[in-house]
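Can anyone check this?
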Amino acid sequence: MAAAKMNIHNIMEELVTERVNTLYDEVMKQNSVWLTCDCENCRLDTICYVLNRVTPRYVVGGRGVTHNTNLIKENGQIGIDIEKLCVEGMRLVNTAKRPYHQNGTKRAGVSGEINIAEFNFPTFMGNIFDGNSFEPLAGASVRLTLNGETVEMIDPTWQNPCNTYEATKGSYSFWMAPHEAISEGMNKKFNFTVEVTCPGYIPVNYSFTVPLTSEKIDSVELNSTYSVKIQDIFLFKEDEE
C-alpha cells in the first residue's frame, strides 16, 4: 500500500506574500518617490526578506491552514511586526544596486564562475531575551563586527545592524560577504563580536571565533544547513542591579 502523501504548509508564506503584494500596489498607486520599481524580482526579494525574519508556522491540511490563519490575523502585534518588516524590506530592496533590471543578467554574487579563493561564511543566527522575564526582546539593535569593524553583508537586504521584532521572537541573523584569500586551502580564524543595544537596557557585547578554510566555488548561494547558532544573549534593564 502506497504511503499517504504529506501536505505540509507554512502559512506565513501565504500571509506575507499577500501583504507584500498589497503594499507594493498601494505604494505604486500613491506615486511615492521612494519606491522606483515593483517588478516581480523586487517583490520576491521583499517576500524572502520578511520570511527570513518571521517565525514559520507549519500546518497539515486545509483545516489547519484556515484555523491558524485566522488566529494570526486576530493577533494584532504579529500583523504590526509583519507590516514593519514588509516596509523595511521594500525600502532596502529598492535602494540595492540591481543591474539585472536593465540587462537581464543574474544577480552579482549569486551565480557565475569564481576563479579566486575565498573564505565563505556561514549565516549567523541568535536570539535576544529580557534577562528577568526570559521573554524574547523586541526593539533591540544587533550589530556584527569583525576586529572592531562593522561587517559587510553579502546582500543589501541583510541588514547590519539589524533589529529584533516580537513576531520573530527576538531573533536576528547575518550573512556576510566572502573574504578573498591568497590561495585555496588556507586556514584562518575570524574573531567576531555581536553588539546588542536596546532602549532602557544595559548594552551587551558577545565575542566568538569561527575557523574557516578558503575554497574556490562556482556559486554563492544561501545554504540553510551551513549556519552558526550564537548563544542566547540576555539584556537587563538599566535601573536594575
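Reply from J.R.: I decoded it. Residues 78 and 155 are 26 Å apart (CA to CA).
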